[in-house]
Specification:
Helices cover 33% and strands 26% of the residues. The chain is an alpha+beta fold. It folds into 3 domains: 255 residues, Bira Bifunctional Protein, Domain 2 (BirA Bifunctional Protein, domain 2, 2-Layer Sandwich), CATH 3.30.930.10; 67 residues, Herpes Virus-1, CATH 3.30.40.230; 90 residues, Anticodon-binding domain (Rossmann fold), CATH 3.40.50. A 7-stranded mixed beta sheet has the order 3-9-10-16-13-12-11, with helices on both faces. A 5-stranded mixed beta sheet has the order 20-19-21-22-23, sandwiched between helices. A 3-stranded antiparallel beta sheet has the order 5-4-6. A hairpin with a 6-residue loop joins strand 14 and strand 15. The protein is globular, with a radius of gyration of 25 Å. Bound molecules: glycyl-adenosine-5'-phosphate. Glycyl-adenosine-5'-phosphate binds next to strand 10, strand 13, strand 16 and helix 11.
Length: 458
């Protein structure tokens, strides 16, 4: 079975997982809306991450910071001066391209050993001219010179047209954690090392969005910042590399579809940085970033805000600005990886093929689907449904043959189907059918909640 991105996109569109944004108006480039099934899947992913990196993590505290922040934050963080990509325009077809991608794609294709990340704009420009690199859209080799393109979305704040101040939509959630370092430390009395985490929207005016929800201009990030002593930075960096990978494995991702990629070019403040890449249908791509950021973030905020970010160790009396180890992953990018991983087309004994999402039950949109064998059993089925709905998201389907109804649930990854039949009326038992093995067992209605609850723990 060939697993293509097109197949995933079609399933998402037809089964209420993800729709094109503003579709009835012809869409709005690279924005996506999660449908009834997709919103549940994405919420479950965010819940699983929160459970792992806040609830079960030592000394970690959650926050939910504002998207709009004082613009000085973005000066301190370095985003105003340097959050940009090298942009190049094709003069023939007017397409906008990232110069580093143009160089890298050409080098890969022709087995040339260069790393675009390590090249200056001038070096990339020379490479493109020297090799007469062609535009991937129209095949011409006539480009503008490379210039840096700011990736932050700007908006304005002010009550009158004349009195507007430029502000930004946050390009990462991390700064919300850094600017709340003092608040969280003071109110929780946390001792270093401790973590601050949040999940929220981020916005980037990407030059080359695409590959469905992989790279979009509006997305959600799940970020954890660990504040520690400088001497512990390397240790926690290694620990979070492991923790981040383990989380992905526990979600059901095949270890052969994950790899670490150490950054060739480090940001000036980063001591080390690494991505965990996932083998998407379009190739290996960044999924999760882990960064040892030194004391850059808090030092910069101390400098720009004038507020001391010093932490004093009560036992040793040592005072210092903590270092940060960051673990950052996009919720949408992870949802896409999970959907790609779970997607399967299986040949059945009767010669039919079923499409199935082998999602971890904790991630599935609906934990159980209630299916009356015949419409005349719907009263009893609705009774069972009402008792299960108190505990988890449930689906209900009474249309079509039972086989078709199983297939519909397989396609959205529902781990259990409960069938109500005429015996149910007599003895209060039901058939529960497993998505992956398609095995069926008989069980008491009163045991259903416990049975399902055990299977959906993450
Ligand atoms: N605070 C660090 C930071 O933002 P990043 O590598 O730029 O680092 C972290 O982003 C993660 O956010 C990425 O690994 C990816 O999962 C996700 N991400 C970044 N840009 C994205 C985009 N345009 N669309 C979807 N997800 C994105």
């Amino acid at each position: 079975m060939e697993k293509t991105l097109d197949k995933i996109v079609n399933l998402c569109k037809n089964r209420g997982i993800i729709f094109a944004g503003s579709e009835i108006y012809g869409g709005m480039g690279n924005t996506w809306d999660y449908g009834p099934v997709g919103v549940e899947i994405k919420n479950n992913i965010k819940r699983a991450w929160w459970k792992r990196f806040v609830q079960e993590n030592d000394n970690t505290f959650g926050i939910d910071a504002a998207i709009l922040m004082n613009p000085r934050v973005w000066e301190a963080s370095g985003h105003v001066s340097s959050f940009s990509d090298p942009l190049i325009d094709c003069k023939a077809c007017k397409k906008r391209l990232r110069a580093d991608n143009v160089v890298e794609d050409y080098a890969k294709k022709h087995n040339i050993d260069v790393v675009a990340d390590l090249m200056t704009n001038e070096q990339m420009q020379d490479f493109i001219s020297e090799h007469k690199v062609k535009c991937p859209y129209c095949g011409n080799s006539d480009f503008t010179s490379i210039r840096q393109f700011g990736l932050m979305f700007e908006t304005s704040r002010g009550v009158t047209d004349e009195n507007q101040n430029k502000i930004y939509l946050r390009p990462e959630t991390a700064q919300g954690e850094f600017v709340n370092f003092l608040n969280v430390q003071r109110t929780t009395r946390a001792k270093v090392p401790f973590g601050i985490a949040q999940i929220g929207k981020a916005f980037r005016n990407e030059i080359t969005p695409g590959n469905f929800t992989f790279r979009t201009i509006e997305f959600e990030q799940m970020e954890h910042q660990l504040f520690c002593k400088a001497s512990d930075g390397a240790k926690f960096y290694e620990l979070y590399k492991q923790k981040a990978r383990q989380f992905l494995l526990d979600l059901g991702i095949n270890p052969e579809h994950l790899r670490y990629h150490d950054h060739d070019k480090l940001a000036h403040y980063a001591l080390s940085a690494c991505d965990i890449e996932y083998l998407y249908p379009m190739g290996w791509k960044e999924l999760n970033g882990i960064h040892n950021r030194s004391d850059f973030d808090l030092s910069q905020h101390q400098k720009f805000s004038g507020k001391s970010m010093m932490y004093t160790d009560q036992i040793t009396n040592e005072s210092y600005i903590p270092n940060v180890v960051e673990n950052s992953i996009g919720a949408d990018r992870l949802a896409l990886a999970i959907l790609c991983e779970a997607y399967d087309e299986e040949e059945l004994a009767d010669g039919e093929t079923r499409t199935v999402l082998h999602l971890h039950p904790a991630i599935s949109a609906y934990k159980v689907a209630v299916l009356p064998l015949q419409k005349s059993l719907s009263e009893k089925a609705n009774e069972v449904l009402a008792s299960l709905k108190k505990y988890f998201m449930c689906a209900y389907d009474e249309a079509g043959s039972i086989g078709k109804r199983y297939r519909r649930q397989d396609e959205i990854g529902t781990p259990f189907c409960v069938t109500i039949d005429f015996d149910t009326l007599e003895d209060d038992t039901v058939t529960i059918r497993m998505r992956d093995s398609m095995e069926q067992i008989r069980i008491k209605i009163s045991d259903l909640v416990d049975y399902i609850n055990k299977a959906i723990v993450f």
